[in-house]
Every structure is written in C-alpha cells, then in structure tokens.
C-alpha cells in the first residue's frame, strides 16, 4: 500500500464488520480492514475480500496512513470499554477534523460523552445505530447516525449508498446531536423486545391452548407473514418452527426456555421510567426475559401451581376463527408497542434531543 487509498477504515472483523466492508466495496468504495487480532485481517483478505476494493492493515500506523483525509474510521467492536480503548489508541495518530464512527450497540450516554470529549480535541464523533443483523449489514442495513453533525457531509455518501432502500429512499438520515443515533437504536431494540415477547405469547397460546404442533404453528406464522403481520421476526419464527433436529423432531421443543439480553431493552425501560413515560409493553417484555432467567424457581413453582380448567381443558370452539382473532390481537399489540416507542421518542424530541426520529424508526422496523 502506498499513500492514502481508502475511503473509510473499519476496525472489527467479526461477521457484522466483514459484511459492512463487503457492502461498502460492492458500492464502489475502497475500505481498509483492521482488527486487534491481525491474523484475521489476512484471513479476510485471502477469502471473502479477495478481488474486491479492500485493503488491510497490520498495525496502527499502516491503518491510519491508508486513509484519505478527513480520515473516516468506523468501529465495530464490543460496546463499552473496547470503544474507549480504541479511541484512545487512535487519537495520537489523528488530525483535526478526522471522524470516528461507533457502529456498535453503545449506550447513548456514552455517545453523549464521547461526542463532547472528542469535539474538544477537534475530532468529529458519530454514534450510529446499525440494524438488520448480518444479512442487513451485507446487503442493506438501516443506519441511524448522530453526534457531531459536521461529520455528516463526509459520511453521507457511504452510509446512504450501503443502506437498505424503502421506496427508493435510503433507510439512513442524520438523526440528531450527541447520542441521538444510539438513542433511536435503543428504542428500536426496545420495540423489538416487545415484538418478540408478543410472538412468544402467541406461540404459547397456540401450543398450550390449542394443542398445535410446531409444524402447525409454523403454518400459521407462514400465513400471517403474507398479511398485515408481514415482517422479518414473523418470517424467522416460521423458519425456526419448521426446523427439525437430526432425529426428525422439532428443534424448538428442545431449546431451553431461558432468555438473555444485551441491555438495549432494559435501557429503554429505564429511560422511560426516568422520563415518567408509561412504556408498559416494552418494560413487561424485559421483565419476561428476567422471569425466564430464574429457571429453578419457575420449575419449583410449576410443581405447586396447577392450571385449573372448568371444562375439559381442550379447546372446543372454532379454531379457524380463534386463529384469525389471535392474528388481530397480535397486530393490535404490535401497534401498541410501536406507539409506546414513538411516545417515548416524542417526549425526548420535545427537549430537542433528536431530529428525524419518526422517519428513521418507521423505516427501521
């Protein structure tokens, strides 16, 4: 490599980072790949990135020297301490006006702090939500950039080129100051927590209430995915329910009913409480995950608390009508989840925190 050749440098070569780099290269940009474990750089260049407009760096100086001015650096590393460590590591090599973009699931107060601290050092910081998972990163994510707005003209071309498109419009626009981008991503994830809990409850009603098999429930979700409930979450629920283990039985029946969480749903609920906003559905979805985590207590309780039915315990009504009603109930509940997320965003927007949050959130979900 001789001289600055890369339009952007990306640090963090897990699947999300690799897929974003490949997406950028497919859209005509030259990207420099870098990673703490340098061997991953060579492995990436010799395999997935081979033949594309992607270069690699083996040390900090080589990485920095590869970037055109103003340098655009995107971090796809674990949220928290790792982000701060990389920023401190890069700072001695940067010039005034260079741009650092944090694309992880950082907590918005951290992005508030980083924007201010780096602005004082004449470095422009962007905290950007990235939604869509591994496939979205590869073929079109939703991007929610916020922070130092002076950076936006310098990253807009790349971000809007690689973003998913809705009616021809890029699912990416500047969201607002400081941690606004990560705030929108936080609420986006909180709404998804609600969506997933609602889907689980619909599954539970069909499984225990109607006595349907996993295949039959998968058929119901397949049908729903062709109507008003059409969405990525309904689609993958269908696929999971159809998936059989090696012995031919439904894999979902063997999965431990114990859910974890990475924090964004919890942060949404805490922020709602801080603001006095009744975001009840999202909060209950978070608590449901917490409840699932106390498996031993639930198992003990199940031996003492029994479901009592006044009838036969079997559903004896019109099953088709019941499933239609359940579909509408799930649809109505999802609307409530969205409305509560919008309500929280509206409260924050009144304080001037975000700008185009309504457009962004509706595009991303």
Automatic annotation (TrEMBL):
Keyword flag Cytoplasm: no
Gene3D superfamilies: N-(1-d-carboxylethyl)-l-norvaline Dehydrogenase, domain 2, NAD(P)-binding Rossmann-like Domain
Entry's Gene Ontology molecular function annotations: NADP binding; phosphogluconate dehydrogenase (decarboxylating) activity
Catalysed reactions, as listed in the record: 6-phospho-D-gluconate + NADP(+) = D-ribulose 5-phosphate + CO2 + NADPH
Any single GO BP term: D-gluconate metabolic process
EC top class named in words: oxidoreductase
Keywords: Gluconate utilization, NADP, Oxidoreductase, Pentose shunt
SMART domains referenced in this protein's UniProt entry, alphabetically: 6PGD (SM01350)
E.C. designation(s): 1.1.1.44
UniProt pathway annotation: Carbohydrate degradation; pentose phosphate pathway; D-ribulose 5-phosphate from D-glucose 6-phosphate (oxidative stage): step 3/3
Subunit structure: Homodimer.
Protein family (similarity comment): Belongs to the 6-phosphogluconate dehydrogenase family.
Function of the protein: Catalyzes the oxidative decarboxylation of 6-phosphogluconate to ribulose 5-phosphate and CO(2), with concomitant reduction of NADP to NADPH.
Record-given protein name: 6-phosphogluconate dehydrogenase, decarboxylating
């Amino acid at each position: 490599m001789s001289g600055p050749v890369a339009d952007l440098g990306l640090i963090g070569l897990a699947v999300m980072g690799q897929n974003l780099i490949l997406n950028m290269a497919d859209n005509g940009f030259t990207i420099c790949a870098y990673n703490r474990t340098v061997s991953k750089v060579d492995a990436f260049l010799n395999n997935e990135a081979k033949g594309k407009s992607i270069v690699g760096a083996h040390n900090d100086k080589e990485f920095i020297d590869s970037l055109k001015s103003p340098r655009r650096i995107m971090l796809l590393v674990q949220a928290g301490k790792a982000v701060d460590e990389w920023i401190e590591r890069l700072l001695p090599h940067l010039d005034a006006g260079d741009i650092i973009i944090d694309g992880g699931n950082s907590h918005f107060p951290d992005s508030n702090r980083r924007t201010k601290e780096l602005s004082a050092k004449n470095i422009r910081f962007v905290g950007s939500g990235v939604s869509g998972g591994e496939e979205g990163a590869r073929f079109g994510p939703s991007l929610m950039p916020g922070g130092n707005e002076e950076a936006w003209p310098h990253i807009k071309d790349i971000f809007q080129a690689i973003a998913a498109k809705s009616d021809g419009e890029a699912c990416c626009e500047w969201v607002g100051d400081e941690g606004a981008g990560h705030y929108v991503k936080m609420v986006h994830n909180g709404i998804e927590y609600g969506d997933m809990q609602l889907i689980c409850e619909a599954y539970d009603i069909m499984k225990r209430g109607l006595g349907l098999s996993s295949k039959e429930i998968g058929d119901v979700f397949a049908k729903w995915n062709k109507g008003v409930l059409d969405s990525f979450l309904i689609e993958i629920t269908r696929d999971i329910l159809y998936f059989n283990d090696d012995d031919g039985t439904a894999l979902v029946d063997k999965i431990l009913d114990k859910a974890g969480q990475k924090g964004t749903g919890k942060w949404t609920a805490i922020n709602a409480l801080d603001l006095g906003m009744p975001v009840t559905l999202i909060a209950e979805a978070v608590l449901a995950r917490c409840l699932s985590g106390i498996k031993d207590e639930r198992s003990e309780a199940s031996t003492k608390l029994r479901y009592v039915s006044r009838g036969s315990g079997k559903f004896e009504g019109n099953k088709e009508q019941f499933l239609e009603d359940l579909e509408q109930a799930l649809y109505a509940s999802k609307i409530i989840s969205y409305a509560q997320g919008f309500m929280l965003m509206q409260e924050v927007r009144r304080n001037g925190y975000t700008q185009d949050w309504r457009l962004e959130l509706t595009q991303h979900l």
